[in-house]
């Protein structure tokens, strides 16, 4: 009997097709950019999305130094870390962190939107952020996409 069979497709590391994607961050707002990038890395825009598998794309972000923050976030948003010693809490504003390394703003925003487990750590390794227009992934031939096409 040949009837249509609607079976749930569950992707695994052998059946997943990972692509290389190039995103230009010029003029993009940090949080909106980061949420779309996290979905791309996670694979949520693909029809064969599986929550426990790395089925997302490898994302290359260029022009990280041209990112925007809305409101007073450049001076009010603080990034807090701890050295591990008593009284070792250190904080940086977004402006100070941007002056040190503009790529870290995007990396921290995207990492905070990924799962907090080993899968999230593996997914974060699929993100490559560069301050300028030059990147070293030309051999992978990343496909340039417009993030405004994604919801």
How would you describe this structure to a colleague?
The N and C termini lie far apart (41 Å). The protein has helices spanning 30-42, 73-76, 94-100, 102-111, 118-124; strands at residues 20-24, 58-62, 78-82, 89-93, 127-129, 143-144. 21% of the residues are buried. The protein has 5 helices and 6 strands. The strands form 2 sheets. A 4-stranded parallel sheet has the order 5-2-1-6, covered by helices on one side. A two-stranded antiparallel ribbon has the order 3-4. It is of the alpha/beta class and 151 residues long.
Core attributes:
151 residues; alpha/beta; globular
Summarize the entry for a quick read.
Helices cover 27% and strands 17% of the residues. By secondary structure, it is α/β, with parallel strands linked by helices.
């Amino acid at each position: 009997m040949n009837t249509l069979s609607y079976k749930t497709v569950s992707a695994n590391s052998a059946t997943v097709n990972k692509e290389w994607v190039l995103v230009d961050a010029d003029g993009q707002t940090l949080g909106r950019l980061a949420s779309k990038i996290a979905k791309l890395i996670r694979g949520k825009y693909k029809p064969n999305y599986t929550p426990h598998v790395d089925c997302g794309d490898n994302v290359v972000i260029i022009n990280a130094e041209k990112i925007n923050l809305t409101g007073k976030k450049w001076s009010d948003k603080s990034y807090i870390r701890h050295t591990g010693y008593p009284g070792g809490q250190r904080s940086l504003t977004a402006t100070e962190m941007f002056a040190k390394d503009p790529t870290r703003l995007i990396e921290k925003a995207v990492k905070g939107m990924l799962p907090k487990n080993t899968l999230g750590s593996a997914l974060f390794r699929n993100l490559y952020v560069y301050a300028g227009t030059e990147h070293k992934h030309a051999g992978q031939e990343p496909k340039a996409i417009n993030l405004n096409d994604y919801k």
